[in-house]
Amino acid sequence: MMTDVPSMQRLVPRSGPDVRLTALQRDHIHTHFRWNNDPELNRLDSEVPFEKESFGAFKQRFERLCDHPTETHYAFEIHSISDNALIGVAALYRVSPAHQHGCISLTIGDQAYWGRGYGRRAMNLLLAICFDDMGLHRVSAETFEFNDAWTRLVKGSGFSYEGTAADYLYRDGQFWDKEHYALLEDDYTPLEQMPVEPPKATREEVAA
Keywords of this protein's UniProt record, alphabetized (predicted)? Predict the structure, then answer.
C-alpha cells in the first residue's frame, strides 16, 4: 500500500542483473537530446507529430525534469552495468497517490542494445520501484499497434489487456490502434523471484 510519496533520492539508484536505473543526470543532456530528436524513436514512442526541438528549448525542459521532479512524474535513466553506458530512459507518470496507480513507459534509445534483453531487465526494475518501493496497487501501460517490441514486453511482464482505442493515431499514411494494459499488485512477480538470463551478445561479439 502506498503510504507516502517517496522522493527520487529514495528510489534510485536501483540495480538488478546487468542494468541500473538512476535519476536523470545533467551531464548526459546531449545523449538525451539526440534521442529526443531521433525520428525512429519518436515514431515508435510518441503520439505527437515529430518536429525537431532546438537544444535551448530541450535544455530548459530537461533541466526542469532534473531539478524539480514531482510526485506525479518520475523520469529515470537506464544504464548497462557491464560498460556503465547510458542506454535508455524510463518513466512513471500520471501517478495518483490517492488512488495508488500510475502509468509507465520505457525506451532503449541506443540501438546497439536492442533485442538483447535489456528492456526486460529495465522493466523488472521499473516495476520493482512501482510496487515494492512506492507501494502502488495498479500500474498501466499504453502501446501503439505498430510497436511490436514494447507490446511484447508489456504482455510478457504480466500486464492484462484492458481495451483498444481504435484508429487512435494517424501515422505513415494510415490509422493505428492504441491498446491499454494494466498490472495489479496481486499479479506482480517480485524482482527476487524473476528468472535471470545473461544478456544476448551483439552480432559483433558473436562474430568475434
Answer: Transferase
The verdict on residue 58 lying in a domain is yes
pTM here?
0.89
Q: Is the pLDDT of residue 200 over 70?
A: no
Q: Flag whether 146 is in a domain.
A: yes
Which CATH number fits the domain that encloses residue 46? Answer: 3.40.630.30
- The whole domain housing 76 covers 8-207
2 within domain boundaries: no
